[in-house]
């Protein structure tokens, strides 16, 4: 499983667009009056202008080449302020042999750059936005995680390593060999490297094997398979 495309809403729209286009130098592949799309390696991400009274935010992760964690961190710190957790601006995940840094964009999204030392490809080029390999994690906030996770089994998406579904915390949906996950979480969880509580907002994720997973405007989970 790989994430082909993500569509989400963004408040502070013009500042968000400038942030990705000018501060981080992401290529904008398409643009309309109320939306723009960036390319992140083999994934694309579309931000749609949110209604003025709404301030949606999301958590997602981009993969860094496995030999460029320190370079990517220095590059990012040269452009913005990294988020911290108990005084640290990076974290090592021993169970997946990976390191991450976090920051917020102008829309309030919790953005993660993750370097998977055993999974990601290496790069010999100086690190920049074009070095990022894909959207490797997209969090989906729901009101009933057990029900939502179970419904994904119908489109052949299962818990990582067939872990037992827990009503608390995060559920990583996807296969370890792909190193790409949909992260399901109930509302009200405090995000790592943030003081924000997880909140459900509309989002749509298109996967490479024809599966679409989204939270609709009624905040209901909808998943489907597009047969070619």
Describe the structure.
With 228 residues, this protein is mainly beta. Helix content is 12%, strand content 36%. The chain is built from three helices and 14 strands. The strands form two sheets. Strands 2-3-4-1-12-13-14 form a seven-stranded mixed beta sheet, with helices on one face. A seven-stranded mixed beta sheet has the order 6-7-8-5-9-11-10. A hairpin with a 3-residue loop joins strand 12 (203-207) and strand 13. It is globular and about 45 Å long.
Q: Quick recap of the structure?
A:
The protein is mainly β and 228 residues long.
Largest sheet, strands/sense/barrel: 7 strands, mixed
**Low-confidence parts:** none
- Helix and strand content put the structural class at mainly beta
Which descriptor suits the 3D outline?
globular
Task: Give the oligomer, counting copies of the same chain as homo and different chains as hetero.
Answer: single chain
Strand order in the largest sheet: 2-3-4-1-12-13-14
- Radius of gyration of CA atoms, rounded to a whole number: 17 Å
Please give the number of β-strands: 14
Strand content: 35-45%
pLDDT averaged over residues:
93
Helix content: 10-25%
Distance between the termini: 17 Å
Give, in order, the helices and strands: EHEEEEHEEEEHEEEEE
Number of helices: 3
């Amino acid at each position: 499983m790989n994430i082909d495309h993500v569509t989400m809403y963004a408040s502070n729209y013009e500042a968000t667009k400038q942030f990705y286009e000018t501060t981080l130098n992401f290529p904008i592949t398409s643009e309309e009056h109320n939306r723009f799309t960036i390319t992140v390696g083999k994934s694309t991400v579309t931000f749609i202008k949110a209604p003025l009274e709404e301030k949606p935010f999301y958590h997602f992760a981009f993969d860094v080449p496995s030999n460029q964690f320190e370079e990517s961190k220095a590059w990012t710190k040269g452009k913005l302020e990294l988020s911290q957790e108990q005084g640290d601006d990076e974290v090592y995940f021993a169970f997946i042999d990976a390191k991450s840094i976090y920051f917020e964009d102008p829309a309030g999204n919790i953005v993660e750059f993750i370097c998977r030392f055993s999974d990601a490809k290496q790069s010999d080029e100086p690190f920049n936005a074009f070095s990022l390999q894909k959207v490797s994690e997209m969090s989906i906030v729901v009101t009933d995680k057990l029900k939502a996770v179970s419904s994904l089994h119908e489109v052949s998406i299962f818990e990582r390593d067939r872990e037992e579904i827990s009503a608390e915390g995060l559920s990583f949906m996807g296969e370890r060999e792909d190193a790409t996950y949909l992260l399901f979480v109930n509302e009200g969880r405090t995000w790592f490297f943030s003081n924000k509580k997880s909140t459900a907002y509309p989002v749509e994720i298109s996967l490479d094997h024809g599966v679409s997973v989204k939270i609709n405007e009624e905040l209901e989970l909808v998943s489907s398979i597009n047969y070619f």
